[in-house]
Design goal:
The complex is a heterodimer. Chain A has 11 helices and 10 strands. Chain A is an alpha/beta fold. Chain A has a domain of 77 residues. In chain A, α5 crosses α7. In chain B, α2 runs antiparallel to α3 and α3 packs antiparallel against α5. The chains are: A alpha/beta, B alpha/beta.
């Protein structure tokens, strides 16, 4: 069971200004929670508390019902695939070697690594023959992002943490990739936390959505309910988020 | 003789010097890489440490090389004379570029790449091994390249402290006033620098992150560095495995005298003698004798009295000898009987001038000197029995302040008319070949410079046969003998070893080693 819960979590970088201020939200195993909000609302910080790239100042983050600080750090991180904008691929490794990183760290047999890499290429819809030996800088943005997702899924972790995974892509590629990710999710049923400041993207993809403002969740629940019955303040916030970005096609 | 024929004649010697040179630079660069990369990693992790660490490394680089060797001389373990001190100095010089480029390489890594690696559950060690070092490697290699190339240059100066290498030819050429010999060392040194530069440029290109075929290269590079360190260490261990070490300063005469001592000890005791000939000056020899890096060398009484012990000038030879003997005894060294010649300073002018202006004495020269320029070695300008006293005694004045230059360059400067009067060695072989004339010290200004072997007392106690061997040279080398040997070596008819060998064959034939007398 890989549910994730934030229980009154606070975080501050400098000891004074809170980045997260008593955040309380959760997502059940196999569901996707989208964190939306303005830049600086604390979305990325919340995400990094899950795999302990950061540690909460107070409150606790539970993964599978256990405080993340009680987990073995390496086990915790290997249980949570991490996807960031532009993929964060290792520039000195080929696509195949990037994807095979975690299985190799886990000490898998070469034959097993090889078979898994094959599966992952299939999953993200790239040809291993064409792309396996390329270097990250030889790929397009969308291809890089796919490789990043494959790398995060390599040892089949129950959790996927995604920070603006489609942020740097053009609208068409973006739509295509969102579709693919939705297909993957239907098959794999990972527990996903998706950070986005794109409301339509979050609404189309997530089972649950939380609107963050100044380190707190000002609204939380299934996306359609939030969009329908949110308070005036939240509506205004969501509208302003739309205005932040250039107009984009809705995905359906 | 052209450089090429010099190489042909000395190919073994040049080849060996080249190997030693490469070893010095390789060992120093390897060690500087390990230390520098470690410091660079620490500094990149803790930005607050970065500035002070880089400043310390910068300070090392601003120390002039000869001064650096001077600082290292009295230090145990890392200092002294020979390859060890040279490698230490080269390591200190190599640190800055490597620390700098390591920091630059690490700081320049895309933060999202490191974050992704951390989020995968890489341990700090795995992060360093798989991400940080491979990505910073091209930058680090650029620093190693700078360190190695400057190391090839600095290593030529290491010959001054007896570390060997191509600098030996440069120093020998300077003391022989022979540009062919200088070039014989300088050309391969430049070639080596270019080869190292090109080679490491290629390695850097090959390692560029996107061309890299997995991080297997990091262990390979580390292994290569370790191998060079071990090889270098082995070479130096072999070089320092001998029991008796003879030293000498970096003049032709001193090298011949060093050979003379070494061969005398070898012939009469059968011991293996290590030679640290060509050390860069009186104080370096003295410190080396103090620290035990050398066991014996030939000093001159006047030099010991004033330059080493800071005593006032004494003109009585007997009194000078007694004072020096006492001073040496007080510091654990023993003065052995004088070799027989007095190498006083010689005030020299061109033969042409001496003949046309009928100059015989320094007094005569004082009449002409206001129209002249003078050139003196650094030592002569500093020492109490040097220029100041000479000028006062004879009322010497020159058209401009005397030019300070390397002693060995003054002869050629005089012969070619760049200066008109110099202070050279009375036994210099070039005096005759360059048609120079020694002026008579008619007011007896210069103190005696009797050549005397001086040895560590503990060495003489441990190996009495060494004392017996050196005693056989007492009073056997005349000023004429010395001038002839100097002339033969400076004129390149013989190398110093051959000159010493032939002198011993002719004058001390009974030294020849008897089998069974060996230890």
């Amino acid at each position: 069971m890989a549910s994730i819960e934030f229980c009154g979590v606070s975080y501050t970088r400098d000891g004074r200004t809170p980045v997260l201020d008593g955040l309380t939200i959760g997502v059940a195993a196999g569901e996707c929670l989208a964190l939306v909000g303005r830049s600086g609302a604390g979305k990325t910080t919340a995400l990094k508390l899950v795999n302990r790239l950061l540690d909460a100042v107070s409150g606790s983050v539970l993964v599978g019902g256990r405080d993340v600080r009680e987990w073995d750090l390496i086990r915790l991180r290997r249980s949570a695939g991490y996807v960031i904008q532009e993929g964060g691929l290792f520039p000195h490794r080929t696509v195949t070697d990037n994807i095979a990183t975690v299985p190799r760290l886990e000490g898998w047999e070469p034959a097993r690594v090889d078979a898994r890499v094959d599966e992952l290429f299939d999953l993200i819809g790239l040809s291993r023959g064409r792309f396996g030996h390329r270097w990250p800088h030889e790929l397009s943005g969308g291809q890089r992002q796919r490789v990043g997702i494959a790398r995060a899924l390599a040892v089949d972790p129950p959790i996927l943490l995604m920070d603006e995974p489609f942020g740097a892509l053009d609208p068409l590629t973006r739509a295509e990739l969102q579709d693919e990710l939705r297909n993957i999710q239907e098959r794999l049923r990972k527990t996903i936390i998706l950070v986005s400041h794109d409301i339509p993207e979050a609404a189309a993809f997530a089972d649950q959505m939380a609107v963050l403002e100044a380190g707190r969740a000002v609204a939380a629940g299934p996306p359609e309910r939030i969009l329908d019955d949110a308070s005036e303040d939240v509506r205004r916030l969501l509208k302003s988020l739309h205005r932040d970005r250039p107009p984009e096609p809705l995905i359906h | 003789m052209s450089v090429v024929s010099f190489w042909a004649a000395h190919r073994f010697e040049v080849g060996q010097a080249l190997i030693v040179h490469v070893m010095l630079v390789a060992a120093a660069t390897a060690a500087a890489t390990i230390v520098g990369v470690t410091i660079g990693i620490l500094a990149a992790r803790r930005p607050r440490l970065s500035a002070p660490l880089v400043s310390i490394a910068s300070v090392f680089q601003t120390v002039p090389s000869l001064a650096m060797f001077g600082f290292l001389l009295p230090l145990p373990l890392v200092g002294g004379v020979g390859a060890k001190a040279a490698v230490t100095a080269l390591i200190l010089y190599g640190l800055l570029p490597i620390v700098r480029t390591t920091i630059a390489g690490l700081v320049g890594i895309d933060a999202s790449v490191r974050e992704a690696a951390t989020a995968m559950g890489m341990s700090p060690y795995q992060l360093l091994r798989d991400i940080d070092l491979p990505l910073a490697l091209p930058s680090i290699v650029a620093g190693i390249r700078v360190a190695a190339v400057t190391g090839v240059g600095s290593a030529t100066i290491a010959a001054a402290i007896g570390a060997g290498g191509l600098g030996e030819f440069i120093y020998r050429g300077l003391s022989m006033v022979d540009s062919t010999v200088i070039l014989a060392g300088a050309i391969p040194a430049s070639g080596l620098a270019l080869a190292v530069d090109g080679g490491l440029w290629w390695v850097g290109r090959w390692l560029a992150p996107r061309r890299q075929a997995r991080s297997r290269l990091v262990p390979a590079l580390v292994a290569a560095l370790l191998v060079t360190v071990l090889l270098g260490g082995a070479v130096f261990a072999i070089r320092s495995g001998t029991r008796i070490t003879v030293g000498s300063k970096n003049t032709t005469e001193q090298i011949i005298l060093g050979e003379l001592l070494a061969q005398t000890i070898e012939r009469s005791t059968g011991m293996t003698v290590d030679r640290r000939l060509n050390l860069g000056g009186t104080l370096i020899c003295d410190r080396a004798l103090m620290t035990g890096d050398i066991d014996v060398y030939v000093e001159y009484t006047g030099t010991a009295l004033t330059a080493i012990f800071g005593k006032p000038v004494v003109t009585d030879p007997k009194q000078a000898l007694d004072t020096v003997r006492d001073e040496y005894a007080r510091t654990g060294r023993s003065l052995l009987p004088a070799l027989g010649f007095n190498n006083s300073f010689a005030i020299l002018v061109r033969g042409q001038d001496a003949r046309t202006r009928s100059l015989r004495t320094i007094e005569d020269a004082a009449r002409e000197s206001p129209r002249w320029r003078a050139g003196f070695g650094y030592e002569f300008l500093q020492r109490p029995d040097g220029y100041d006293g000479l000028a006062r005694t004879y009322g010497l004045r020159f058209a401009e302040p005397p030019r300070a230059m390397d002693l060995t360059l003054t002869y050629r400067a005089l012969a070619s008319g760049q200066v008109d009067l110099i202070a050279g060695d009375a036994t210099a072989g070039v005096i005759h070949s360059l048609d120079l004339v020694q002026l008579d010290d008619n007011r007896l200004y210069f103190p005696p410079y009797d050549a005397v072997p001086v040895a560590r007392s503990d060495t003489l106690l441990r190996y009495p046969e060494v004392r017996d061997a050196i005693l056989k040279l007492a009073g056997r080398v005349s000023a004429r003998d010395m001038q002839a040997m100097n002339a033969a070596v400076d004129g390149r008819e013989k190398d110093p070893a051959a000159a010493a060998r032939e002198f011993l064959d002719a004058n001390l034939p009974d030294l020849a080693r008897v089998p069974g007398q060996a230890h």
